[in-house]
Design a protein that fits this description.
Helices cover 36% and strands 13% of the residues. With 416 residues, it is of the alpha/beta class.
């Protein structure tokens, strides 16, 4: 299963940026190719582009399970589980719950070799690892009544992800494992929905032993890059798409899959354009995104979401507050009984939180992260990545994310 990326539509504007060092991850890719050169998985350089998250996990020899649950409002979500690491099962394994970023899926926590990807590292450290997929992404496109071909399926923002999807997923994990609580790791939107969930359903603080927030997003007043240029028009674009009956953002198409695999291949002359486009979105860092692995990453991400979900972030940029979705005057009166969207209350986030942030992250700007830190009542760790350049995407795909981020998350969890 592949998820197309419509990002390539914008690639032409990124070519002016400098190219990253060549052959940064030759060792990683040579190990991948050596492992699978004689297998049935395939002999191409991009074997992972045609595999699902469970297939990728199984390919590395890890146990994997697929689970389904239904939210209160009828969305059917798929979760992927790595019950234990390569050393085998053990008794009373703590549970790690991983929540993905905007336009992402469970795949983004395994986009590297096991020694470097967070999901595998947690499993090998003795955790029972659960990978979430929120409504609308590649793996969670079903509903008890609604059809994703109908715009009504897509009438949600990350408000609904926070209120329905994350709590339902946590409850399912606890019921399946018998655990009392989970260790929560979120990346980008995986942190946004956590703050919103705890504001609306504070009883879930008791179900989270500790929360690690990578590239945390709540306030976005200082965001940089294309999002700042597009944010003033996001509401209008949302309205136009809604009138046209379009509710899904970045749906998969075979044409775009072909485009990515053909023109983002490391041997293609256009590869640097694909690579540099990521810097244009997320901030500079010439060392961390594995160029050779890029076609595999882009075959799985973006994984799709609703137009409202993306627009909600544009609203954060423009509003200077952390609030619910803005439906306009009449819509707000209908939804909230007031003319403006209610604000989320970060003082209700009482679970221990560790913030992990980078200095060149354009979407989780250090100034905005500092504002978030000041708003959290139980900030247990405020960790700046010890690297001069570390951007928004490095937290999931970075070649050295295990060294700069994940080992600190493991230490943080071990304290609780």
């Amino acid at each position: 299963m592949k998820t197309a990326t419509a990002w390539v539509v914008f690639l032409g504007i990124a070519g002016v940026l400098s190219a990253p060092p060549a052959n940064v991850v030759d060792e990683v890719m040579s190990r991948l190719r050596a492992k699978y050169v004689s297998s049935d998985i395939g002999k191409s350089d991009h074997w992972g582009a045609n595999m699902t998250t469970p297939e990728l996990i199984a390919a590395f020899g890890y146990p994997v399970e697929t689970h389904h649950l239904t939210t209160e409002d009828g969305y059917i979500l798929e979760m992927h589980r790595i019950p234990h690491g390569l050393s085998g099962p053990s008794e009373n394994r703590p549970v790690a719950f991983l929540e993905h970023c905007l336009l992402c899926s469970s795949a983004d926590y395994i986009m590297n070799v096991p020694e470097k990807a967070l999901a595998y590292k947690l499993a090998d450290a003795g955790y029972d690892v659960w990978l979430s997929n929120m409504r609308g992404n590649t793996y969670s496109r079903n509903h008890v009544e609604l059809d994703p071909e109908d715009i009504s399926f897509w009438q949600f923002s990350w408000d609904e992800l926070a209120y329905y999807d994350v709590p339902a997923s946590i409850d399912y994990v606890l019921s399946m494992t018998g655990a009392d609580d989970v260790y929560y790791a979120g990346w980008s939107m995986g942190t946004t929905v956590f703050w919103a969930m705890m504001s609306e359903r504070p009883e879930y603080n008791q179900k989270v032993r500790a929360m690690a927030a990578m590239a945390p997003v709540a306030f976005m007043s200082n965001a940089e890059g294309p999002i700042m240029s597009l944010a003033p028009y996001s509401d209008n674009l949302d309205l136009i798409l809604s009138l046209l009956g379009v509710g899904e953002f970045l749906p998969s198409t075979d044409l775009l899959d072909y485009f990515v695999e053909t023109y983002c291949d490391m041997e293609a002359v256009s590869a640097d354009v694909c690579y540099n486009f990521l810097f244009l979105l997320a901030g500079p860092d010439p060392d961390e995104i594995p160029k050779e692995f890029l076609p595999i990453i882009l075959a799985h991400t973006p994984a799709g979401t609703s137009v409202h979900t993306v627009n909600h972030y544009g609203q954060l940029v423009m509003s200077d507050v952390f609030g619910k979705y803005d439906y306009g005057l009449i819509g707000n009166l209908n939804h909230y009984g007031q003319s403006t969207p209610p604000l989320y209350n970060l003082s209700k986030v009482t679970a221990p939180v560790g913030l992990f942030w980078g200095s060149t992250d354009w979407l989780a700007d250090p100034t905005d992260v500092a504002r978030l830190a000041d708003s959290l009542p139980n900030l247990a760790l405020n960790h700046k990545v010890d690297k001069e350049q570390f951007n928004h995407l490095d937290f999931g795909w970075g070649i050295h994310a295990d060294e700069y981020v994940y080992r600190h998350i493991l230490d943080f969890f071990a304290n609780y």
